[in-house]
Structures
1.
Amino acid sequence: MKKIISIFSVMLLLFSGITVYAQEIPQDNEGDSVVAQTEQLLEVDVVNGTERVIDLSETATYSMVADTAASETISERSVIGTDERTKITNTTISPYYAIAYLSITMEDGQTYRGTGFMISPNTMLTAGHCLKSSTSKAKSVTVYAGRNGTSKPITAHMTKYYVDTKYTGSEADWDYGIMVLDSNIGNTTGWFGLHGTSGSSIGTTNIRVTGYPADLAGYYMWTCAGTVSNITTNRFMHTADTAGGESGSPTYFYNGTYGNQAVGIHTHGGNYSRRITTTLVNWLKDNGYAK
Amino acid sequence: MQSKKKMMIGLSVFILLLASVLVVLYVKIGAGNESKEETIVGTVLENKESSMLIRDETGAEYVVYLEADYNGEEIGTFPEGSRVRIWFSGEIAETYPMQVTAYRIEKDS
């Protein structure tokens, strides 16, 4: 009898909610295990009309964390507000100046508005679906950093972009995009640092999402704080209020050493952000797109 | 004889406990595999060959794309001005217009 109780106890322990972090097993958004494979990016040069596929391989020494520091070109820093969506009235202070309203035109003529954020003098991150759909891809993107209604303090245009080859229009796990601009507006606007992570933590539970929602009148920037939950290999959920137009918004927190650091890219209502991974950060650093 | 009886009782208890563990596991796995189903009802504003723009009753606009294995009626059968119901996974990509990928579309009466 004692033996049986012992066996049962062992089984109970095995199948109970106790989590043992022996090894990180890659999972997709549904929590299913996935076979590790090299990520690839589709590089699209919208000026020359050329395309090529490149590997997004982990070239730097493996680490669970990869950081880049924010650049705050203006000395004044905004005070983080309360946990409600609030309008940003001064969009030319850090970190808001580094957030841009995107005017997107696809090759099939469909237009979208979205959001993106600077990560270096001439590079932005946004959602993959701001650049690619299942039937078309971006033809042009005009970037209005720090847009405040009809006021457009600085403008740039996308010359090249990268999307994950696994993103064909609806694969939320691979829904991120990298945009290269025609000028170094980041030297004026500043940029976000990146906190790339692997494993079960993204390094913070409190985040903020700031972007250009379309449900509130005009072309204004709004921000909302929230908390993080349901972290998977490539995505996480958050409680910050968002709306259409905020795809590509930075999901970020303030780090005393690195400044405002993005941990994710807001993509879907519900609310979901695409995680900024160590693989992505290391590739950006290795290729001069993040410092 | 007594030890045989004890063994039988023990075995019964073990099987009972094993069954309860399996039931708990089955329920957990089943809950994890629940597929989400969401619908949007709206009016077709623009009809392209492989996507369409709709506006729902709140005034929100969506570009509707089709899932790779969509085998419903062709988008061309839903003329501009008609009311449609869209079934999708629940994922709404937050550009504006927003983007959804439908696995089923029907005329809404």
2.
Amino acid sequence: MTGAAPSPQFKRRAQAALADAELQRALRIVEVNFIARRSEAVERLPEFEALRDAARDIKNHTLTHLDLYLEEYERRVTEQGGQVHYAVTAEDARQIILDICRRLRANIATKGKTMVGEEIGLNEFLANFAVTPVETDLGEYIVQLRHEQPSHIIAPAVHLTKAQIAADFRRAHRHLPPERDLAEPEALLSEARAVLREKFLAADIGITGANFLVAETGTAIIVTNEGNGDLTQTLPKAHIVLASIEKLVPTLEDAAQLLRVLARSATGQEMAVYTTLATGPRRADDPDGPAEYHVVILDNGRSAMLGSPLRDMLRCIRCGACLNHCPVYHAVGGHAYGSVYPGPMGAVLTPSLIGIDKAAELPNASTFCGRCEDVCPVRIPLPRLMRFWREREFEQHLSPAGVRAGLRTWAFFAKRPRLYGLATGIAAPVLALIGRWRGRFRWLPLAGGWTRHRDFPSPQGATFQARWKRR
Amino acid sequence: MSARDAIFRSIRNSLGVSGHEAPRIKAVADRLSEHPSGVLPRRGQLPAKERVALFMSMVEAAAGSVAPVDAIADVPAAVGAFLRQHDLPLAVRCGADAVLAAAPWAHEAALQVTTGPSDGRQLAAVSRAFAGVAETGTVVLTSGADNPTTLNFLPDNHIVVIEAKHIAGDYETVFARLRRTYGAGRLPRAVNLITGPSRSADIEQTLILGAHGPRRLHVIVVGKPGSRAGTRRPAAPR
């Protein structure tokens, strides 16, 4: 099943991505750096595999008791003077946030990195109502300047080269001398730091996501390296935490187990620079911190996933390891997926959020090599869940006619083992004979989609079944 | 039906529960009150002296710097030495922390010490950590008038004073102390676990220090591990 059934949309984007030399150069860095750093971090911690089991079990336990932990969490937040808001849909969440902004007459809202914020399209919405959202994570800031979506859940601008970013800064920061030197990443970072420092100090509202919500204490935990999330939540009048229901964990100890696998899986760090536990608004004697503390809890289809085979996906802690290890992601980058969540985790999550009829291409954008599951810190069976969606797609007759015909042909032979053996017994030696000189094919009839970007290996002679029989 | 009710109903439908099942309620109550620890890496489970040594090497591995001193009385000189080493003005801001306030700042005559939160105009701040974690070289700071949170993020240089006796092997030991200090189920507004100075790798995966938070994190470790030197009375100012 070569390149089974991607819709024209994914196919078109993927082809454009493969032809984009700058993107390909940027993507090579993902493949080399992230994989090596994770594996070094894992080697340094002998307990890593045991921690993955613990992380999986904590998430499973929390999900099966989610209603009760959510009640406890809400009780604790309220007790500390914070306010919990519930949003069934993305639209509800946007409206709740806008209402808070309006009540506080907010002009500028700084934002820490939040994938849920991307999911609900918060920036565009706020901007329509005269609240200027300012992304403060460097990568998010860059993609905001470009009016793009992040291409990676933890490295939003990973698809860009420094020259592209320098051009964006020249375009956006017109108050700075045009002849300034922006050749090196250090210069770009200093410039962004100075520009954003003004925004931090001017912001009326700070919006962050949450990596974890702790039921025991009513705490939102964010994990960052830059410190932008902390300035976002500490300086303005109000802090809004935007988080989906599955971020809950029972206790601080449970959070610590998950933190031990999060940074190592994501960036290969022992621990991210800033792990911040935020609980409620400024206290009576506090000289700093927000006067108001709001939590917007978003469902957006997740409570329904809880009762389906997709429940496993709700363990996801958004580390990005599955993207970093995915050969399809390495080849085409995050934007080809056309959804907020790219890579294997997105291929499972996106159809749950927007419907398989609108996202059928995504679970097909996988070779099923299984590396994503091998590295997932909470052991989500990603290939199995992608297969679940492929089956729904086939059942609902969403697959393209060519694929359905191909599958039917294959099934015809597969259900007739003798005929299958005969057909492959003829095809394999013939192909081996034709391909024996190079050992591979640069072109095959009916397989142009495959051979346009890579060679097809020629068979070695006998079929697997024939060789198995001879053992 | 409110959004809250709709979400709870949908969760309970999916789980096939009512929310009133006694065994589930007990399982949750037990976990919250017992907060089991799970897997603790052996790395940090060390005697005091080795634990502090691991803490210091992990801070350095995270691109922080470390200065061990014998007593709180030595902190002003260590702060001055750090500022001079980096050609910084001899001025720091700190909170109302009593231990820091008791240090003999007058011994560093040229050093200007102001108190209060940061408004972004200070180049260096001094905070006193609630605890440290040897496993990853992490300092744990708690918000409040003693150590305002803005000091951790706005100044370019963050100097953190930590007493050796407060350096734990793992996060869990620190959580237990937080519960003893603030009460079960309660935390100060912000608990900051900080591991090295601010950084970003968002441009071509090139790691650069000093993204939005401090470019430098300097940790002054006070006292010999296992001794009570960390609480020794400061030398009387002349």
3.
Amino acid sequence: MRRTLGSLFFSRGALLLATAGLNFACSSDANKKDACTPDDGDGIISEPALVFLTVTDSQFEPILVATQNTSEITLELTNEGTTPHGFVVDCKPTPNTDGCPMQSCFPRESKIAAVPPGQSMTIRFETPLVEGIYEFHSDVAQDTELTPGQFIIQ
Amino acid sequence: MIRARPCFWGSLAGLLVAAPARAEPPVEPAAQQIEVRGVRPESPRGVGDFRLRRELLTASPRQQTSELLSAAPGFFVDHEDGEGFGNDVYLRGFDLQHGSGIELRVGSLPLNIPTHIQGQGYADANSIIPEVVSQLRVLEGPYDPRQGDAAIVGSAYFDLAVPERGGLLRASYGSFNQKRLVAIVAPAAAGPETFVAASFRDTDGFGQNRAARAGTVNAQYGVDVSAHDHLRVLAIGRAASAALPGVVRQDDVSAGRLGFYDSYPYYADNQAVRANALILGGELRHLSSSGDVFSLAPFLIWTDFRARQNYTGALQASRSDPRNFGLGDLFETNNREVAAGLTAYARRAPQQFGTSSELGIEPGVYLRFGHTAQSKNLLQPEDLTVWDQRLAAGLGTLDAGAYLDFDLLLCKRLRISGGLRVDLLAVTISDRLANGTSAATNADGAQRTAMGVSVGPRISAQYSLAKALSLIASYGEGYRSLDAAHLPQGATPYSKVRSVEIGTRAQLANERFTSTLAVFETRVGNELVFVANNGGLESENASLRRGVVASIVTKPASWLLASASLSVNEAQFSTRVAGVSHHVPSVPPILFRSDVSVRGALGKLGQLPLSGRLGVGYTFASAQYLSDTVRGPKTNALNVGGELRSRFIALGVDVYNALGLQVADSSDVYVSNWNLQPGQQAASVAIHSVAAPPTSVLGSLTLYF
């Protein structure tokens, strides 16, 4: 049976329309990902950075450090105080019900033990993938009054 | 048994063997037909191909030219009080920041700046004075081979003319000490294309640090240089500047620490924008006696842009000397470009085959080359000294494109239009900071080149199911230049867009009723996303948008015009982190717009006729995704305006945001340490907003002479 061009086009068009409609109805899979893949607000990763941090007997300077996630950081800590001070970044809670890690932590290499007054120490480490604000402080026992700082992973 | 109609086979045979004959101009089956000096307009492409006359453009109050786009179904451009920035445009799941992603042209002049530092394809339509816009054609989707760079979601083409000859002087005054003056001279001896227009606007702004000022000149001259040749020359000049208040944190506003229209006392000083532009162009068009058209349109563009914006407070540390930190995140972005080019095409008159089929062909070329100086620095807010450099680059750009468009009408029912567009894009980058990643690499710059060829097939098929009802399916591939300054050596300098739509259009004669329904899907190779800590837009990975757009425009009586459109869409993009995707921020999933206007004669005032116009425009935008888990507020915007005119004098009043709602012009979620105390404070995550204008009233007095 021969068909008119119009009917042919119409039937193809209807098929296309139905396909598009079905496709559209099933469109919510674009955001599917591994449940444990952490979010990334700005979509930028792996930007190496140099960080110069000084610490006195009362505070760190700067009190804020902002870098990207999964980035190689070279951090130099200079103690300008009169007593030894260190540098350690606290883990950040990542509460979830998916069975994923319950916290995100900086690597072991990011910790600096007590640096004597007037001296510096340089470390290299990679920032974690999980974005957010991590608190850093000195874990020297006498530094309870030392104001902590913020390590912002963007 | 269904009998095959002879029309198709007859037409096909005619195409193959018959000698072509000149056709009578056929009836346009879809878009409104506009005749411009006898030249046949382009055939419609896709469901969302609308030609908007001035009556619809002025159906509700629209102060700036960019806002005229809101008259098109699916578009939304919010009302701004400031000057200097191109407006954000919402369309089909896109939040086109500063117009980057929609191709804008005035006449034959391209307005987009392909590699602008504030967004690739940046465009500011406010360099056009709204009173001289006679018609606007919008193309939703990249379905026409004539569409060039930046036509990610579509195109908008402004036609300028002043049909009412003589002179116009309009003075407006309103809220926030806002003053606007417009003067138009359109000599009666010349045609509608010829005019000189100037406008000046000054406002104190609706809150702290919002004073703005702009001056614009448009001059166009159209003349028949012979019986077959027409020349049109256009000059556009604009200077605009505005102070910017910056963002406010929602937690500070909610706690009463800061007003919604206020500005932070520390680190927020000296935010501002300044934009200057000079655009010159012309078009020489030859119309042969057989109906063929040849057009040559050169252009020259100079733009100078500078913005100073701080989104995050004082988080940044210097990249060249990390010992410098906490001096304020006031990013200064500069973009200065000189560009020249031309468009040319040869449109053959449609050739008839058989009794009911015809074929039109149009080859064309596009050339644009430019040089751009770009920089991005961190400034100290108090004295504007540079404390860190992030970008210093010189860019040479070239876009050499060619297209072949065909327009085949079969059996008076089936129209297949489209063709192929090929663009060679080349960029040379003189990166004086080598991306500024460290002090070591800042010493020497880097020279890089990037080149690529974009091949974009585009096709649209329209079948007339009945005289007033068409089924339309379209597919197109477009492109947009990428952030050239950060391109690596040998990279492809453009991002691809692929879009498909299927829909219907119902249209009665005399434009009394037009209705469209389209289902679309658009994929973009690289999404532009706002990243606060980098002080602007960043290129991310691919994005996907799907949605439905429905519209209706009706003019049941000569005095009544009503339009409404509904857009429902979903927009996702993939980040540079594998496996991570997000809702595209700032895109309202549901957008509804409606305009209603009544106009006509009201009687006589003394011996003079009295006419009036009343218009209402309403917009609803559902809560935008600020992140995957945080959504912003809904937007309800109502604008009302009216005018009374008695031949030589007119009085008008426009009210914007008549509902008096507190609306954010933009909102984003990110980390900042804005504070009401001095010094570098602790940071936290918050919603940050820039306020849109509160209720604004503007009265106008217009004299015609």
4.
Amino acid sequence: MKTQALKQALDLYDFDAVFGGARRDEEKSRAKERIFSFRSTGHRWDPKAQRPELWSLYNTRIHPGETIRVFPLSNWTELDIWQYIRDENIPIVPLYLSAERPVVSRGGQWIMVDDERFPFEPGERPSMKRVRFRTLGCWPLSAAIESDADTLEEVIAETLHARCSERQGRLIDSDVPGSMEKKKQEGYF
Amino acid sequence: MITGYVEDIASFLEFQTSKETLRFITCGSVDDGKSTLIGRLLFESKNIFDDQLSSIETDSRQYGTQGESIDLALLVDGLQAEREQGITIDVAYRFFSTEKRRYIVADTPGHEQYTRNMATGASTADLAVILIDARKGVLTQTRRHSRIAAMMGIRQLVLAINKMDLVGFDEQVFTEIERDYRRFTEGFAFHAVQAIPLSGLEGDNVLFRSPRTPWYSGPTLMDYLECVDLSSERSCSAFRMPLQWINRPNLDFRGYCGRIAEGEIRTGDAVRVLPSGVKTRVKSIIRGFDEVPHAFRNESVTLTLMDEVDASRGDVMAAANDPPESSDQFEARLLWMAEHAMTPGRQYLMKHACREVTVTVTEIKYREDVNTGAHLAAKTLGLNEIGSVNLSSSAPLVFEPYRVNRILGGFVLIDKLTYETVGAGMINFALRRAKNIHWQALEINKTARAAMKHQKPRCIWFTGLSGSGKSTIANLLEKRLHTEGMHTYMLDGNNVRHGLNRDLGFTEADRVENIRRVAEVASLMVDAGLIVLVSFISPFKSERDMARNLFAEGEFVEIFIDTPLAECERRDVKGLYAKARRGELKNFTGIDGPYEAPQSPDIYVPGTSASAEASVELILRSLK
């Protein structure tokens, strides 16, 4: 999983800080994050004892073995991101745009059949749907949404009128209560 | 269906960008309903997604405190520990928008224990919603949070008198609490305080005017947030930009990078680099990849200058005709955020704008009583306490008072060992007479150094024949003192004769000079606050007296290790007595050189009757 690979890379290269794109509006435990978020030895996050973070003064001091996760986009919203992509003409991964793709339905979510490695469950058969991803995470734990938005403008329009949150398609967020918080404590971004 | 919107996307986004952002916090005492109120605000303004709502419906069954109804507080209390205890531990940030404004709300914890997290939220807010439980009125924590909000420079306040449903929407309850609160905040620098009777749980006066408070004619909470005047929060002072980085990719380019803290800048403007004060003009302004003719507050830019001026990270670029001051002595208000109390004299790291310096609190002028604001005398500042202090920094800081400039006036203190953020401070002013009183204000002397080491500096002088056991006992004593946390140093023949005194031989004159130098070094070390152990035969009374005269009364402790010559000669650890007896060593103390035994040493240690350990015990007892 991403967490293990990340921790191994951090240990291997002995990085003091890593930057991430996590935003406070994404998820309830991310709403509690500092911009400079301290991790103790072993990459653990202790949400009950975060460093105070006043104004825009960031305490970057750490001891050997400790690290910092930096989230410069903390106060951006999903809409801000799309607006910035549009303003700055930033290329995006095509999976964010709608297209005919093979999917199966699992637990009320559309899971995309990427290639021959996809493990079907008994009785499952792929069907073609116009889908796109609102968020891209671990395979195969990110679900697609049904959508006709195949241009950036349409994606923004859809975002504006969405009735569901961005990370609704992230299955790992909801497997147990406090799921994201637990993963974060273990070193997930 | 989508295409209809798409045509409007450009104008819609344009409109979004032009919207003002209001940052506010909810604060107040535990269980005043802060999280529930935010949940209600988001719920009624349709800023909650369907899946989030269905998830808190599920969670309400497990953690909810509202029986069968959904517990809206769970929208912001996102940590497991918070849900299990039904409290808020850390700030949660939520984002929502209306036709008029974009909002960032920080829901801050009410427990005194988590005050630092409330301060974290308050430091970036324009407005505070202070909640009060209508049944309880103004509490200590209400006062603490109000004080911190005012101290952090929040000027707009909503007094949300909550849980009105539990007091039957009684106008008198509301009026009395409002009156109490206004009396308490007299003299605070709030521009406006708007009191609103509401029920976060049932929604009264949150978005919609409540039919149950016909006696109240003011705005609902949402109406007020939409209309509150923010213009006074946006100051229009002269240009200031702390330098984050000097970008010098090659010899032809030197860019000064930073984020504009105040004011605006145009090409051609005259600027000064502080603290050096060098004056020049702006040649170009680069924002992102583009050159622009001018730039404004909060924009991150790179400036190039007409002249190559010397500057480094932490310096401040400012309007040439209106520069901020610089000083190394300040008065500041300080909120202490660590378990370990703040002690004057101890050094901390100060992070101020883009600069990090070492500072010392030279004096706590007073601690503020959180309830009354009374000035109390204080030797230390404990967790969550607020005080007014004098600070001295290791280098001059370019600053402005916090009330006019949050960026050049705010700072945090960091513990030098643990690296925890331990204090948040706001500069009031420079100590004007700093240059004259500097050394009085921060006199670093023997007493100050000793206080930092928590010990009484002394010179413990061992005298006795060669082989009497001086060094063994002195070594053991040093180990004991060290384990007790004392800062010690041992001076003996070995570490002095090989360096400092290697030009000296063993004639009487050289021996006197040897002792003089050792005594002088010991005296400097005592001045540095150390406990110095000197182990020298020092046979002459006059030299020992000379040494004693270099120290203050009680600082010099003479210890006579009285081991008879016969016993020393029997031990003869280094074979020196044998050599002397054979005539190979001249002037050897005890053989052909005299030893003037002290008549009244400060501590007398019989060298044969006790073990070295017992002798150390005896010395330690006598020293105390």
